[in-house]
Amino acid sequence: LPHIAGQVTAVTPTSITIKQPKGTTATFAVTPTTVYKSQGKDASAADVTVGKVVLATGRMVNGELQALQVNVGDKGSAKHLRQRIKQRIRHWRHNHPGTPAPALNP
After folding, report:
1. Are 51 and 87 spatial neighbours (Cβ–Cβ below 8 Å)?
2. For the segment 61-96, what is each residue's pLDDT rounded down to a tens digit?
3. pTM of the model
């Protein structure tokens, strides 16, 4: 699953734009089914604001990057969040070969 960690540079009701540490940006579409987490607890779209650090995990749908889950954190937590998501994806793929991973909680 595609996942991007970085600082939020723009937020609309339907999208989040994230600037990655190397300067590239990615925009995720958000939907009513997008899950939001902050420090392992439930969060909401309102918690995603410009300047926040996030890790967004998604999938490609009709050529659009769609967010399945957005983890909101501080600058120090971005690396940790990325590692946790990668670990859970590896675990899912090992136990469910050939099956797409669902939204994963770090």
Report:
1. no
2. 898 999 999 999 865 565 666 677 677 777 777 887
3. 0.71
